[in-house]
Each structure stands twice: as structure tokens, then as C-alpha cells.
Write a structure and sequence with these properties.
By secondary structure, the chain is mainly α. It contains 12 helices and 2 strands; from the N terminus they run H-H-H-H-E-H-H-H-E-H-H-H-H-H.
């Protein structure tokens, strides 16, 4: 489930970085907002309705992205990167330094959302197997949605903007509107990943919005290979498995406490040896 959730998160960023050429270093803010929304809307006395909290989580991430994107997309390059990072850090400190999000300790999701419709419950998210298949369905749905979007006129316009935005403007495309729509869609899907993460762990804290979480998902899509949805999923899988391996006492003993060092060196090696990412090596092997 962790890998599937991170794959959704990675694909949402792939839409921006790999398809539109917008390097966002604050994507974790939308993930965290989605996670916090479902937790804050669930009362301590019992579960909230799934049909309320799920749309609210996605809408909260989308609304924040609309505000952030409306301002940050007026810049480009390193300025865009820094502005998105600044907005993400603002959201981080709202949850970290105020009682809203329980401070640095975070808050617990005591009850999974209730899927009842008029007294009839089609499924129970309190069941581990049900939540697993709901996450799998979300992963398949997000992949199908993004694959359809990228094959559409909208997706081709994003590809044109990535290659030469000035030429796209000259041909009459409102590039600002296209980029803003992609930014909001990407954030909404990141909010979905955050929503599923909160259900899986039953706990959220401000670290979900931190800059290093944004950096980690950026590493996933680079590791998997930019420009491919399958690469984003493959990168999430590889990153998670490497992290789990280097944190294992059985494999590394006491050195597992310093797992960031071998993980960093491994990613550097992958990027140096496979400049097109893991998906590039897979495609090259398939052609051979």
C-alpha cells in the first residue's frame, strides 16, 4: 500500500515535471493537506462520511494549489522552484506551529471514514483488505486518467509548452491557463495520495509537508525516468525498496542507522549510469 500511494504521488508530480516542464519543490504541501483534511474533519466521537471527507481532501489540496499556482506560475525557472518551496514551508509551519494540526506531535485518525449510503454500507475501509483494494483501484484510476489526459489535446499542449512555451503562445495557446490547470490537477492527485496515506497509517504529522518529502518524490520520478507514467511508478517502487533495504538491521546491522548515506550514493550511481532512469533501461532492453 505504501508503494501504491507513493506511486500515485509520484505520477501527480510527473504530470508537472516530466510533462509540463514545471519543477515543483513544494509538492508535499498538497499531499499533507489532503492527509490533514480527512483527519481534521473526522470527529473524535465517530467516523465521518467517506463521501464528505474524500472530496473535501481533494478540494482542499486543489484550492491551495489554485492560489499557489496563480502566483507562482507568473515566474519560471529557479524562481518558480523557490516560490513553490516557500508556499510549502508556509503550509508546513501552519500545521507545525499552531494547534490546528497538533503541532510537531501530529494528530491521530481514530476512525476510518464510513462508506454508508442511506444506511447501506457497500464496503468497510476499516478492513485492511478493503483499503488495500481501494488503494489499488485508485492507482489504476489515476494511471488511466493521466494516460488519457496526456493523449488528449490538453496533454499535447503541455508537451508543447515544455519544449517551447514562447512558440506555443505565438500559435495562440493560453499557456498560463494550461499550466495552471495542470498544476491544480497534479495537486488534486497528490491530495488523493495524502488522503490514502492518512487512512493507511491512521496518523499525520507536519513532516508530510516538509521539503525533504518533496525532494523524495522528485527523486522517485528522476530515478524512474522523466517523461513516463510507468517510470514514476517504477521509481516509487525502487525508492521504497532501497529505503527499506538500507534501513534493515538484518542486512546492514548497526550501519542501518545511517541509511541515508548508502541510499544517496545508490541514487547518484543510478542517475550517473542510467541518465534516462530505470524505465529507459527497461525500454532499451525490450528493443534489444
Amino acid at each position: 500500500m505504501k508503494i501504491m500511494i507513493l506511486a500515485i504521488f509520484a505520477m501527480s508530480l510527473e504530470l508537472l515535471v516530466g510533462q509540463a516542464g514545471l519543477v515543483c519543490f513544494g509538492h508535499a504541501a498538497f499531499f499533507g493537506i489532503g492527509a490533514y483534511t480527512v483527519t481534521l474533519l473526522t470527529p473524535a466521537s465517530g467516523p465521518a462520511s467517506l463521501w464528505l471527507v474524500a472530496p473535501a481532501s481533494l478540494a482542499a489540496a486543489a484550492l491551495y494549489a489554485l492560489a499557489v499556482g496563480a502566483l507562482s506560475l507568473r515566474t519560471r525557472g529557479v524562481y518558480f522552484i523557490m516560490i513553490t518551496l516557500a508556499f510549502a514551508q508556509m503550509a508546513y509551519f501552519v500545521f507545525h506551529d499552531t494547534p490546528l494540526g497538533g503541532g510537531s506531535d501530529g494528530i491521530y485518525l481514530d476512525f476510518p471514514p464510513d462508506a454508508s449510503i442511506g444506511g447501506w454500507r457497500p464496503f468497510d475501509l476499516g478492513s485492511g483488505h478493503t483499503l488495500y483494494y481501494a488503494t489499488l483501484a485508485s492507482l489504476v484510476g489515476v494511471f488511466g486518467l493521466l494516460a488519457t489526459v496526456l493523449r488528449s489535446r490538453f496533454g499535447r499542449a503541455l508537451a508543447g509548452i515544455r519544449v517551447n512555451e514562447q512558440r506555443m503562445r505565438a500559435t495562440g495557446f493560453p499557456t498560463y491557463g494550461y499550466k495552471l490547470a495542470a498544476f491544480v490537477l497534479s495537486a488534486t492527485l497528490a491530495g488523493l495520495a495524502g488522503f490514502l496515506h492518512a487512512l493507511k497509517d491512521g496518523y499525520v504529522n507536519p513532516e508530510l509537508l516538509s521539503w525533504h518529502h518533496s525532494g523524495a518524490v522528485l527523486l522517485m520520478i528522476i530515478l524512474g525516468g522523466l517523461g513516463h507514467l510507468r517510470g514514476a511508478m517504477l521509481g516509487a517502487l525502487a525508492f521504497t525498496m532501497l529505503q527499506e533495504a538500507f534501513q534493515s538491521d538484518a542486512l546492514l546491522g548497526d550501519f542501518a542507522r545511517h541509511w541515508q548515506l548508502p541510499l544517496g550514493l545508490t541514487i547518484i550511481a543510478f542517475v550517473a549510469l542510467l541518465p534516462r532512469g530505470l524505465i529507459g533501461a527497461t525500454l532499451r532492453g525490450a528493443r534489444q
